[in-house]
Amino acid sequence: MRLKPGALLRFYSLCGILIQVAATKNKGRGSQGQFPLTQNVTVVEGGTANLTCRVDQNDNTSLQWSNPAQQTLYFDDKKALRDNRIELVRASWHELSISVSDVSLSDEGQYTCSLFTMPVKTSKAFLTVLGVPEKPQITGFTSPVMEGERMQLTCKTSGSKPAADIRWFKNDKEVKDVKYLKEEDANRKTFTVSSTLDFLADRNDDGAVVSCRVDHESLNSTPQIAMQVLEIHYTPLVKIISSNSWPEEGQSIILTCESKGKPVPEPVLWTKDGGELPDPERMVVNGRVLSISFLNKTDNGTYRCEAKNPIGRNSTEYVLIVHDPNGLAGKTVPDHAVIGGIVAVVVFVTLCSIILLGRYLARHKGTYLTNEAKGAEDAPDADTAIINAEGSQVNAEEKKEYFI
Question: How many angstroms separate the CA atoms of 290 and 257, rounded?
Fold first, then answer.
């Protein structure tokens, strides 16, 4: 039986189809024990993600990459999705690698590598896209701040995924007691985080550098930092420094009034014992320095230095004691008034003693004859001589004498 040419062509086509089906089945049998291998990938937003699918033993079975929406990206070396960001890196029977550049947050999800065996075998790779936090900003600072006022500085950054971490530092020393707030952005994928630093302004904080540091895994160990230099205004702090720790008469002394404040204090005011300096010729003021030449005892007293600025005023005192150069070193020479007091006491005691002695002698006054009087030779004492002399020596010259 002779076949018509058209029937013969149909027969050859049918044979070819049967042979192709048989070949496909043989391929499936050879790849039954093989599974595609993939790995999860993490990439920073805007970066490039590399997706690799490998098969150790593959007998010409096709590989395919598809996105989270199950759209085919590449089938072997053939590009299926029109996206200029997606490119082929390597295509062979054992590997299919592609890259996705300029990755956005919407690219995040589960990607599938398929090995077309009978049945089809798949492996999943999850692409994680990190949202980079924006450069932080510090708000809430108004310059200047008065000492004692409460300060609230807030550091804020948006666009981080996952939420970024914020840390505070003052002159490179970390401040722990802060408040932290995390909010989800409108896209429901990234976060805005903020932190507040609350403290009372102190003069020691003037010029301090307060920094807010944002840490995030997308920053590759290079944190983003915002800084703020503090300006604190405060009343003057005053101190007097003496050039001579043991001033003596005839010497000179220099008293320096150190005043520190912000704004810078005005020229200082010097006074002595609550009034003006008594001797302008010897007591010369030059700025913050008081010089006293040819010291003497009249310079003793309390010297006061006062400084002020628009915030307030402050003062301190220095007690000056001028020493006698002839006195013992390290001892204060007695004052003339003290010496005069001691002399007065001695004179008073002496006069009192004389008066008491005179009153005592007045009570023991008597009359007797001296040893020249008659009968005195036998008298053992003055009293006996007087008794013996009475009567017989009436006309004798009487000699009166005070005795004890």
Answer: 8
Q: Which long-range contacts (CB under 8 A, 24 or more apart) does 206-210 make?
A: 206/230, 206/231, 206/232, 206/234, 206/262, 207/231, 208/170, 208/171, 209/170, 209/171, 210/138, 210/153, 210/168, 210/169, 210/170
Assess whether the previous peptide bond of 119 is cis (omega < 30° from 0): yes
What is the rounded CA–CA span in Å between residue 299 and residue 213?
Answer: 59
Long-range contacts of residues 372-381, Cβ cutoff 8 Å, at least 24 apart: 373/399
pTM: 0.64
The pLDDT tens digits of the residues spanning 327-346 come to 755 444 455 666 777 887 88
Backbone angles phi, psi at 384, to 5 degrees: -65, -35
CA distances in angstroms from 39 to 52, 114, 329, listed in the order given:
7, 14, 90
CA distance 203 to 306: 19
State how far the Cα of 133 lies from the Cα of 191, in Å rounded to an integer: 9
Q: Are the CB atoms for 128 and 110 separated by under 8 Å?
A: no
DSSP code for 4 = P
**pLDDT higher than 90, residue 315:** yes
Q: CA-CA distance, 332 to 150, in Å (whole number)?
A: 51
* H-run or E-run covering 225: strand 224-229
Instruction: Report whether pLDDT(56) > 90.
Output: no
Is residue 177's pLDDT more than 60? yes
> % helix / strand / coil in the chain, to the nearest 5?
20, 40, 40
Calculate the average pLDDT of the chain: 83
